Amino acid sequence: MSLNKKLYLVPRNVHELIAPTGNIYETTVIITKRAKHIAMHMKEELDRKLEEFMLISDEKDSIDAHRQYEITQSYERLPKPVLEATREFLEGDIVFRYMHDAEQAGGDS
């Protein structure tokens, strides 16, 4: 095993993950929803960048193919959405609220 490989498994303190919600399952749902949002945003951005290559389907230019490959590779090197969402959650960058709290706030006006 090479020591130069990037480690994707990062030990997390469960108590840190539970602290904002009081429940590991709620934390998991919040992180998962944010990770899906990040992944959708990344996919939309990648699709926009690759769209110009899709329009020129008849002409196969090696320079365009190389640029398309480079764009795709740059997105593959980005942090995984779940890792980014976990980082955001632990740093307090994700705002969440419970449905019953939102309903009560809306009904009290």
Structural description of this entry:
- GO terms for molecular function: DNA binding; DNA-directed RNA polymerase activity.
- The RNAP catalytic core consists of 2 alpha, 1 beta, 1 beta' and 1 omega subunit. When a sigma factor is associated with the core the holoenzyme is formed, which can initiate transcription.
- This protein has one domain.
- The longest helix has 32 residues, at 24-55.
- It has helices spanning 14-18, 24-55, 62-76, 81-90, 99-107.
- With 109 residues, the chain is mainly alpha-helical.
Helix-strand blueprint:
Layout: H1 14-18, H2 24-55, H3 62-76, H4 81-90, H5 99-107
Helix pairs in contact: 2-3, 2-4
Task: Return the average pLDDT rounded to an integer.
Answer: 81
What is the assembly state of the chains in this entry?
single chain
Biggest beta-sheet profile = none
CA-CA gap between termini: 61 Å
- The tally of strands reads 0
Give the number of domains: 1
Beta-strand fraction estimate: under 5%
- Provide the low-confidence segments as ranges: none
Structural class call reads mainly alpha
> Can you tell me the overall shape?
elongated
Instruction: Write down the Rg.
Output: 20 Å
Order of helices and strands: HHHHH
State the helix count.
5
The amount of helix comes to 55-70%
Keywords: DNA-directed RNA polymerase, Nucleotidyltransferase, Transcription, Transferase
InterPro entries: DNA-dir_RNA_pol_omega (IPR003716), Pol_omega/Rpo6/RPB6 (IPR006110)
Function: Promotes RNA polymerase assembly. Latches the N- and C-terminal regions of the beta' subunit thereby facilitating its interaction with the beta and alpha subunits.
Enzyme class: transferase
